[in-house]
Amino acid sequence: MSRGAASRGAMSGGAVSEGVATAGASPATDALPFNARGVAAIYKFEMARFRRTLLQSLVAPIVSTALYFVVFGSAIGSRISTVHGVSYGAFIVPGLLMLSVLTESLANASFGIYMPKFTGTIYELLSAPVSSLEIVLGYVGAAVSKSLLLGALILGTASLFVPIRVLHPAWMIAFLVLTSASFSLCGFILGVWARSFEQLQFAPMLVVTPLTFLGGAFYSIDMLPHAWRTVTLFNPIVYLISGFRWSFYGSADVALGVSVASTGAFLALCLALIVWIFRTGYRLKN
């Protein structure tokens, strides 16, 4: 089937597929190997949904961050003066950023692809003149954009409570982008896998958040007994937080190279799973 024919067949779909199909109807777009206008249609639709839920998407995480500083910074910070030569309030900033970015990346990407499945418009999207790569770029790109915006706002909020210095800003941005992209891809996989809203909330609430709390977000794993420190090293979130904290203060619980390799391996695993999903059609059409 030609791209133009697929576009005409998809015109009866939902808002995303309508935008994609319209983009694909142009002869100029048909001649291109990459449908940039189709990606833009998906991206703009997801960002429009984000703007409609600003209270939930931005205000709630920022208020939660402020509460973390009040509780942990005041209650625990008064008992722990410094960690690795950094004040406790400043020490928990990278952990708080990671907690928010991981959770929002998962939630945004998973909800974005789950809703077309839930409403049935996934069929129009799959028949529109966009490839699997372009679909993933649209949804994951929007989720990454939201997470980076949230991360910047939380960093600004944290600076109101404690003085923050970033020794390696390029590495900080790199870790933030890699982490956002990795967990947005993971969220996309979760959205495809989920068959109910309960399953959609399973990973963020019962897996990612506990692993983040136990991964050194609010403490250094060097403070743990040796046996528990060994167990903690099996937590993949430890390497993300450790590398991200190193970009701020130059100190880390694990080597920087190990953190980068772990993040890259997780990204590669998510990409491989997404390729498999589109090749097999796993839970995309049922």
What this model shows, in words?
- Helix 1 runs antiparallel to helix 2, helix 2 runs antiparallel to helix 4 (36-52) and helix 5 packs across helix 9 (132-159).
- This protein has one domain (39-280).
- The two termini are 22 Å apart.
- It has helices at 3-10, 15-24, 27-30, 36-52, 54-76, 88-91, 93-119, 122-127, 132-159, 169-193, 197-213, 226-232, 236-249, 256-280; strands spanning 82-83, 86-87.
- By secondary structure, the protein is mostly helical.
- Strand 1 (82-83) and strand 2 form a beta hairpin.
- The chain is globular.
- A two-stranded antiparallel sheet has the order 1-2.
Radius of gyration based on Cα positions: 21 Å
Beta-strand portion reads under 5%
End-to-end Cα distance: 22 Å
Q: Element order, helices and strands?
A: HHHHHEEHHHHHHHHH
Number of strands: 2
In order across it, which strands form the biggest sheet? 1-2
What count of structural domains?
Answer: 1
Q: Number of DSSP helices? A: 14
Mean pLDDT: 85
Low-confidence parts: 1-15, 17-31
* Sheet having the most strands: 2 strands, antiparallel
